[in-house]
Fold Antitoxin HicB.
Amino acid sequence: MFFGESTIMLSYPVNLELDANNTFLVTFPDIPEAITAGDDEGEALLNGLDALETAIEFYFDDKREVPMPSKRKKGQLVVSLPALTVTKVLLANEMIRQGVRKSELARRLNVHMPQVDRLLNPRHSSKLEAMEAAFHSLGKRLNISIA
């Protein structure tokens, strides 16, 4: 996925620790609010994605930029956000950087506030055309690439 001139893929490094109960504790150095666990590594990583998406909702609610992932260390596992969630994170971060509130975005897009709320809901299946229009209203262009 391209945003501006750079390729953006949000793959967050994961810390997995086996605890005393033989469950895997999952934490994210870049998103400390995302904490979960799983009975095995696969379940822990799956739960990690859910915890990451939930933490991102907190950032959106608090109108704080979502931190970009740090570079993973050799052998470190990552959890990658789905492409649509990536676009929502980038949109929210750009709105914060430009000082554009949801009401202003709604005005620019000529839509009602619930539509903007859905654009900024990581769990809502927004249409790609709506995401493109939102970026365009911020003076940005959304390009998609397959690698």
